[in-house]
Amino acid sequence: MLVAPERCIALVNRADFLRAKELVENFDQWEAFEDYLDDREGLWMGLAFAGLSVPLASISLDPFLAWCGTNGEPATAERLDEFATLTQALRRSRLQRQGNDRNDREPLVNVPVDLQAYEAWAAYLRKRPSSTLLEAFAQFTVEAWFDVDVPEFFVG
């Protein structure tokens, strides 16, 4: 089962930060990488002082941009945190499967799927669209975003 944390704060490395300044809306608000880190860590500390446990998550820019493309929404600094939350949910889900520690009451994360790409994929495979095929396509999409093996992605 894929379980979502409440929220994550995304961090990109220096090389991705420089690229993000050109490719991601609102990244120009930080003049230097150090300013970006100070801001992100300041947000993390502020939330911690407020009693919220919000993890920091290292994110690579290319999978984030692919995710935004799949959603059909612009890449923004705010959406990077959403992507970090999804990434952490995937990592947590893998750990739960490995430890067989499942909590069925926690919410599942929705994985956006490009409907046209799904239909083209189903036609290529000469399969009729179905919920099972849609789940397989979503698993395939997630693996492409994160370059991870996510077996039995939707199995609870």
Question: What does this protein structure show overall?
Answer:
With 156 residues, this protein is mainly alpha-helical. The protein has a domain at 9-110. It is 56% helix and 4% strand. The protein has six helices and two strands, in the order βααβαααα. It has a two-stranded parallel ribbon. The radius of gyration is 17 Å and the shape is elongated.
Which structural category fits the helices and strands?
Answer: mainly alpha
Q: How confident is the prediction overall: mean pLDDT? A: 77
Low-confidence stretches: 1-5, 148-156
Q: Please summarize the sheet with the most strands.
A: 2 strands, parallel
Strand order of the largest sheet: 1-2
Structural Rg: 17 Å
Helix coverage percent: 55-70%
What is the 3D form?
elongated
* Content of β-strand: under 5%
If helices are DSSP runs of H or I spanning 4 or more residues, what is the number of helices? 6
* DSSP E strands, number: 2
Termini separation: 4 Å
> SSE order, as H and E?
EHHEHHHH
